[in-house]
Amino acid sequence: MKKNLITVAALGMAVLFTTPAQAGGGSSAAVDTGNLNSALLVSNCVVCHGQGGESQGYTPSIDGLNKNQMISALMDFKSGNRKGTIMQRIAPGYTDAQIEAIANELAGN
Ligand code: HEC
């Protein structure tokens, strides 16, 4: 019984600590903008959007977007100006600097 409680607690901690950044975009999140691992950030996106952003179905392909389109789509999801099924939950988890790093990595130009 005690072991079960520990397992549940450990899972709860894992969920807490794997969120990309504090939801709500708190600017106090300590992000070293000079050292963003954009490849790692983008690995979260390709799970749904396909390798390199080329969708295998069910989600839109994002490989055709340029950098500015990518940033404005993510900022709109983050601010709530644009609604979707899932992206408005994902985008707020990233700081503006992380969004720019993601756009650089995925869109490149
Ligand atoms: C859980 C699956 C999932 C993950 C993870 C995910 N997306 Fe999405 N994405 C979607 C879906 C579904 C849509 C369609 C809009 C909606 O329903 O939210 C979408 C839409 C988008 C759009 C708009 C595309 C267009 O044509 O306007 C962009 C840009 C985007 N996602 C970028 C990203 C980036 C960057 C990441 C990683 C930080 C990411 N997504 C992670 C599922 C996902």
CA-atom Rg in angstroms: 16 Å
**Which superfamily, in CATH terms, is the homologous superfamily of the domain at 37-109?**
Cytochrome c-like domain
**Could you tell me which ligands this complex binds, including any ions or cofactors?**
heme C
Low-confidence stretches: 21-28
CATH class of the domain at 37-109: Mainly Alpha
Strand content: under 5%
**Ends distance:** 55 Å
General description of the model:
By secondary structure, the protein is mainly alpha-helical. The chain has a domain at 37-109: Cytochrome c-like domain (Cytochrome Bc1 Complex, Chain D, domain 2, Orthogonal Bundle), CATH 1.10.760.10. The chain has 5 helices and no strands. Helix 2 (38-49) packs across helix 5 (96-106). The protein is globular. 16% of the residues are buried. The protein binds heme C (HEC). Heme C (HEC) binds at residues 44-45, 47-49, 59-60, 62, 65, 70, 73-74, 84-87, 90, 102, 106.
List keywords for this structure.
single chain; binds heme C; Cytochrome Bc1 Complex, Chain D, domain 2; globular; 0% strand; 109 residues; mainly alpha
Topology (elements, then pairings):
Elements: H1 2-17, H2 38-49, H3 67-79, H4 87-90, H5 96-106
Heme C (HEC) binds next to helix 2, helix 3, helix 4 and helix 5.
